[in-house]
Amino acid sequence: xxxxTELGFLPIESCRVDRAVFRNPxxxxxxxxxxxxxxxxxxxxxxxxxxxxxxSIAESLGGASRPEDYNDTYAEFSIIHSRPEFRRxxxxxxxxxLGPEAxxxxxxxxxxxxxxxxxxxxxxxxxxxxxxxVVDESxxxxxxxxxxxxxCVLDNGAMSLxxxxxxxxxxxxxxxxxxxxxxxxxxxxxxxxxxxxxxxxHAVILDDALVxxxxxxxxxxxxxxxxxxxxxxxxKTLWHQQIGTNEDGLDVQVWEIDERFFFEFWxxxxxxxxxxxxxxxxxxxxxxxxxxLQELLGS
Length: 299
Ligand SMILES: O=C(O)CCC(=O)C(=O)O
Hints:
Elements: H1 25-34, E1 36-40, H2 44-61, E2 76-77, H3 78-81, H4 84-105, E3 109-119, E4 126-129, E5 143-148, E6 159-161, H5 186-190, E7 194-196, E8 202-207, E9 212-214, E10 223-232, E11 238-246, E12 249-257, E13 275-283, H6 290-298
Antiparallel strand pairs: 1-8, 2-3, 3-10, 4-9, 5-8, 5-10, 6-7, 6-9, 11-12, 12-13
Helix pairs in contact: 2-4
Bound molecules: 2-oxoglutaric acid.
């Protein structure tokens, strides 16, 4: 059996995060155990503000994304697919509405990446993955504050989460990270996942290292949500850019970046005016077997 390091993950002794995430100790304990907490976070008025803001920014720019930048098998993540001007305005809108509410529950976290996640009818799978790693995960947890802007149920693509996976699957992840789970049949992973259905305005606040998945939207209405990636105020935020391969795996440039890095961000390359190169590392290129995943979860 391969070790966590050979599979691209931190050794288990480096997976302990002591820095508090939640102000409320019960929420902190739940987050430590499961890797996420579900709670009501936005009022329906705030939800309306975000939905109408999304529509009016998109309308003013001729659509959130250009058709050639978005393959609708997958959900439309504005930070990857949308026009740069859409992202700037989306960042301002999401941080102005959600930021203050998130601050009330999190211990000194700051916004880094703001995303609208849109699943048009009949589209929008989000394959099993972990989010980008944007902090040193051996010491800190970045979180995604994901909020439903419509009621989210299985039929329109609610998220499913692999409880506890954040405790041992900590690592450095860039755009390649989706590949780690692509070799395991979805039906097998599904048996390990917990589905979380939530009404509009409810948040799922998850550790970005948590494994999760969401199926396509099979209804006639779009399924819109937001994701605000937040990092502890005091830590440097990172971007891992794959620049090639070598005999040991992926050749990865490590950047220290701020939120502006992602406004002009295409295919894994960000805006270098807002980042500096701080390291160059090799990361194993791994496609896990179910036995590897079970071993990692059990370790
Ligand atoms: O909105 C979804 O269904 C999935 C979102 C997601 O994967 C994420 O925010 O990391």
